[in-house]
Amino acid sequence: MKVKVHWIIDGVAELDVDSTDEAESIVEAQLKQVIAAAPVLTETLGVQAIQGNSYLPGSEEDGDAQ
Questions:
Q1: How far apart, in whole angstroms, are the C-alpha atoms of residue 61 and residue 34?
Q2: pTM of the predicted model, to two decimals?
């Protein structure tokens, strides 16, 4: 019997950087390294994409995002 499992890994990284773009770039690069180093993620677990969005502390956390 074939069964599909849709899964999500959720996380929040906190970095000391000069911009939200820099934070996204750093996290993206690190996640790409992890995925490349662990082929089981793509070959067995079916990782197809990573997605993230940076925000300043307090803005998204408090629901005050605009």
A1: 27
A2: 0.76
Tokens of 27: 């996290």
Cβ atoms of residues 50 and 35 within 8 Å: yes
H or E stretch including 51?
Answer: none
Dihedral sign computed on CA atoms, order 12, 17, 19, 24? negative
- As a whole number of angstroms, the distance between CA 44 and CA 19 comes to 35
Looking at per-residue pLDDT, the higher value among 64 and 15 belongs to 15
pLDDT tens, residue by residue, 5-44:
998 889 999 999 999 999 999 999 999 999 999 999 999 9
DSSP single-letter state for residue 18: S
